[in-house]
Amino acid sequence: MKPGPGVRPRRDADEDLLEDLEREDDSLILGKLAALAAVVWNLLLHDGLPAALAWAVSAGEGLDVFSGFIEPDLQARLGRFGLFLSIVAAIVTTESVTRLVRPFGLGHLVLTLAFVGAALFPFLAGRQPLRLGLTAEQSGLLLAYCYLALKVAVGILVGAVVSWLLLSHLAPPGAPAPARSTTRK
Fold first, then answer.
1. Which residue has the higher pLDDT, 29 or 155?
2. Residue 164 clears pLDDT 70, i.e. is over it
């Protein structure tokens, strides 16, 4: 006798077991894909975004605020290395502030801006007749190190801004601040 409409025919226990196993395999695959997507998303947000912004600030003609002070031959010699240091500083700052929950407060911001001012001083002094009592080789070396220090400071500022944006937009409203994952010594 055939079952009526809406009535399922009786199935074997083996068929039910196979169907359950297929569902488990599908959910396992979907879980692995979701975990992979979460890792890629976190890498893009915490590493790719600061790197791209540090590159845009360093490589963009209109965005590089220090290009008016720095000699073009110095930028040509050290530009790529400065860009690398800027990207690394941006990524390290973003990771440190967001994942390790090390706050980048007002004191850190003022210290970074003072670092920018100190690194910018030799470029400003070089435009004036002031030579700081250095030979040409020493002055060139000082300018090279100050150029690289400026790029690191720009990377730190980019990383701080990105981490502030990530922390403010990714945290649910009214959520308490996350606990530090490292202890202070």
1. 155
2. yes
